[in-house]
Amino acid sequence: MSINVTLSIERIVWDKLQHIMGLAGSLEVSGVFTSSKDTPFHVVDFDLLEQECETTETIIEDTAFVKYMSEKAKKGIDPGRCMRIWVHTHPFSVDDPVPSQQDETTFDKLMEQKPDWSIMLIVGPGGHYGVARCRLVGAPTTYISAPVNISILEQSLPIHKKWDKVHRPLVTKKVLACTSSPMTKTVSSLAISSAMASLIACTYGSSLISSLPSH
Question: Which of 15, 38, 128, 153 is buried deepest, with most CB atoms within 10 A?
Fold first, then answer.
């Protein structure tokens, strides 16, 4: 018997995700959706967690989920609403993005508490999205493909700058820098690029740029 699940995403949430994806540029980023209290497959918010990112991988900090869950609990939002749907981007996917083996591993790790259902959604450039992977836990665990539907909610509030301010500090680019030994590599944080600096200066003013690390 086939099972059909529709994930409905509010337009303002989709726009928020697209905006953050644009800010990240070539970096893969991820976060979690919050669903409606009465309708679990209806998405009403997206949260970006603190993470280190590369072009093909995003690693959420161990403490990020603790902080995130604490903030949600203060708002009366339980894990069943905000820890079931993981969404991440594939900035270089030409066609509909599909999960990599690393994506599957990350998904299993994030959902290790084994909720009765959970969803992974991958979003590519231009708003293209892959088929959501919905996992239903039973005996045995069953994987199904969940079609994604985006609901439209008219929203004209100028909130992009608010999204910039809230989410900009959470994404750190992860790069490999060679040490004096050609056989040794170490991970370091990349100084902000001139293009990104210009964007921040335009959004927040030049005072913020002066406080950022330079190359």
Answer: 15
pLDDT band for 116, please (50, 70, 90 cuts): confident
Distance between CA 124 and CA 21 in Å, rounded? 9
User: Domain ends where: 99, 121, 150?
Assistant: 150
Range of the domain at 206: 171-210
Model confidence over 75-95: pLDDT tens digits?
Answer: 999 999 999 999 999 988 777
Give how many domains the chain has, as a whole number: 2
pLDDT tens figures, 3-24:
667 888 888 898 899 889 989 9
Clarify whether residues 106 and 27 are in a common domain.
Answer: yes
Contact between 146 and 119 (Cβ < 8 Å)? yes
